Amino acid sequence: MIRRRVVQIIPVIVLATFVVFGLLQLVPGDIAVTLAGDNATDARIAQIRQSYGLDRPFLVQYGTWLWNAMHLDLSRSYLSNEPVFDQIMHRFPVTLLIVGSALALSLIIGVPFGILAATRPGSFLDTAVTSVASLGVALPNFWLAMILVATFALSWNWFPATGAVALSRSPSQALLHATLPAIALAASGVATVVQQLRSALIEILSSQYVRTLHAKGLSPAAILWQHGLKNVSVTLLTVVGLLVNRLLGATVVVEAVFAIPGMGSLIVHAAVHKDFPVVQGVVLSMVVIVILLNLLIDILYTVLDPRVALK
Amino acid sequence: MTHSIDGLDRRAFLALVGAAPLAVTEARAQATPKRGGVLKVSAPSNPSSLDPTTGGAGSDHVFLYTMFDTLVAFDYATLQPVPGLAESWSYPDDTTLVLNIRPGVLFHDGTPCDAEAVKANFDRNRFDERSNVKPDLATVADVTVTGPQQVTLKLKQPDTALPLILSDRAGMMSSPKAFKELGRGHDRAPVGAGPWKFVSWADNERIVVTRFDQYWQPGKPYLDGIELQVIPEVNTGLRSVIAGQNDFVYFLSPQQKTVIDRAKNLTSVTGPTLYCVLLYMNWGRPPLNDVKVRQALNYGVNREEFNQATMNGLSEPAGITLPSAHWAFDAAMAKRYPYDPDKAKALLAEAGYKDGLDLLALGYTDQRHIQRQEVLIEQYRKVGIRLKFQNGTIPEMTNAYMVEKKGDLYLSAWTGRPDPSQTYQLMFAAGSFYNTSRVEAVPEIGPALLETRRYADIPSRKKAFAGLQKIVTENALLVPLVFQWELDAHGPRVKNFKPNLLGKPKFENVYLEG
């Protein structure tokens, strides 16, 4: 399975980077004008276009990038002249910490409430949990982020309003900086986990084999922990996979609100200025991350449900 | 001919004399600056480069000023030239400029900033393939070292704009040893002769500089260092100062003044700048090749209303491309186009557009610019001009208007230049990038531009600029709208920050308390 997935990665990467590169070409604007700066002249712009190879045909530019990428050279940013690989390696841990924290919060809060709601369907608690979950899905994360900043950073001074600190520099400061962004991101994650877990668990708990387990005299707790949750774990795993993909995308907005130097702000800045080596590098790394994550989830499926491996 | 650098006109002189007692009182009242502490600044954009020669963005200067001193400095209030690394200069004849370099100045790597170093900088700025400042030095024919601390520039034509041009990128001196050894690496590890030296630059994240102990100005700088955190979203930048994470934020929008006033721990700083919000015009083709249409556009806009509606009242209505605080300001020309919708309609009718005129303008997508567009659309509707906007990001629209020649008008801004002749040259000269038609609107522009660079003393230059401004204004070559005031905010620790007319903050006088 792993070999098959690795082989699948190649066309996906080529297609994704080609589409993004093509879209960037369609967007109006010229990075040579940006690079020429306030003293731009037509001659200087033409010189920059030539020296950066921007005057070459579309396919030649893309082909050169792809060839270099195949040799593990992601090129340099047109704007900063920094190696793209270094930029990604510098920023990815920041985004990973926020996404990881948001995911952890989603599971830590979402799973217990999902179980509580599923085991008491129709109760006041179930109604309250599902209502709050609906609200969590509906809340825009940028709005929540600003409310969190206004309350916990500006009014009460509990958390920093902006920035990020690397885990390697100071774990406590890194977590302190990541808390508010992670909460802002986690709101919809919690809601998703609650909703998915509740509906899956209700379905399992009302199935015939659970009725049989009741008839055998097993306690409701034993049925829930030994049979219900084990069966629902595959659904939960699927939710986690989808959630990570969504959280990676949502960081673009949250990073802007908190001025976090992560992958989201990197790709936005690069895309606006048509810094295509950076855009391509980030897209490439995101595609690899998502594919590797899906691969990991597929492997975990086989651990949780051996029938998947047999298929 | 020899000209004094202190060529103040009568009005400026009297203003200085009148202000002297006040300055003494203020000086007594001011506390002694304290040394120490690191100033934390929220900066709205990442530098394009930290090498003044190879960078290009107007927003770079705030970073560059910390590490680079210029050959000529400028007076904060009027932008008149004052000595910098060059302690004096003179024009022995029309086409010779002699710069006397201040002795004892060192670069951050310990090498001397002498005449040889200055010549090496000129040579690099003029000939390096990656230099973005070549146009600034286009009139320089030859640079020779005429003494250990003296450099002589032979010019192709009279050019008295050079002293102020040397207060910009072209006058920022880098260590020749550093740029020769580092090559392209000097972009990201610059070595200047400014008050602070470079420590680190994490791209789009943070730039750190620290005190240069051998700085030539005794007792300066006051700050041990500066950390500039890149926060592109200005609302987030302001929040970082309210939360106490940063001490200072600049380039705020006028709408944020209310937020600053509401925050108890913040002080707002405002001041006039050269930053002019305006409508560029393509006069190279119909309908804007007709001066009557261009004049109608100038009569048809209510600048004061625009100021109140879109700038929170924090700007100065603009009649010409220079604000009233500038030494070359011409009050008569600034009043040339009062708001007069009837006159605008009449001019349009004379131009053959009795039933109105459709114009395509390019602009930006953000909320502030959309608001400006809505006000203009409504104001022009009243005089029969149907304005339609096509919007995008700044890089997209600059390319669309200036390179692809799309649209009749472009609602954007002009950030200003230290010498006003640069502004006129870049906006109106034939072939200039910011003149999207690439042709001269009227043939008188060229000679009038040359005239502004012929005289070294301020009164004569002011007179020459009045002539040029008259040509530009009578021909209505753009629609200046307002000069946006600088708006900065800082926390209680920050003392002695003064805005400057260029609108790009300098921290050389700032100190921290508490």
Which regions of chain B are unreliable across 5 or more consecutive residues at pLDDT < 50?
1-29
N-C termini distance of chain A: 11 Å
Average pLDDT taken over every residue of chain B: 91
- Strand content of chain A is under 5%
Low-pLDDT residue spans of chain A: none
Secondary-structure-based class of chain A equals mainly alpha
Structural shape of chain B: globular
State the total count of DSSP E strands of chain B.
21
Number of domains of chain B: 3
* Tally of individual helices of chain A: 13
* Rounded radius of gyration of chain A (Å): 24 Å
The number of strands of chain A is: 0
The major β-sheet of chain B equals:
7 strands, mixed
Describe the structure.
Chain A is mostly helical and 311 residues long. Chain A has 13 helices and no strands. Chain A has helices at residues 2-26, 31-36, 42-51, 58-70, 84-119, 124-138, 141-155, 171-205, 208-216, 220-258, 263-272, 276-304, 306-310. In chain A, α5 packs across α8 and α5 packs parallel to α12. The longest helix of chain A is centred in the last third of the chain and has 39 residues, at 220-258. The radius of gyration of chain A is 24 Å and the shape is globular. Chain B is an alpha+beta fold and 514 residues long. Chain B folds into 3 domains: 10-46 and 203-273 and 486-512, D-Maltodextrin-Binding Protein, domain 2; 72-176, Dipeptide-binding Protein, domain 1, CATH 3.90.76.10; 276-483, Dipeptide-binding Protein, domain 3, CATH 3.10.105.10. Helix content of chain B is 30%, strand content 22%. Chain B is built from 16 helices and 21 strands. Chain B has a 7-stranded mixed β-sheet, sandwiched between helices. Chain B is globular and about 70 Å long. The termini of chain B are far apart. The relative contact order of chain B is 0.16. The model of chain B is unreliable at 1-29 (pLDDT under 50). At the A-B interface, α2, α3, α7, α10 and α11 of A face α6 and α13 of B.
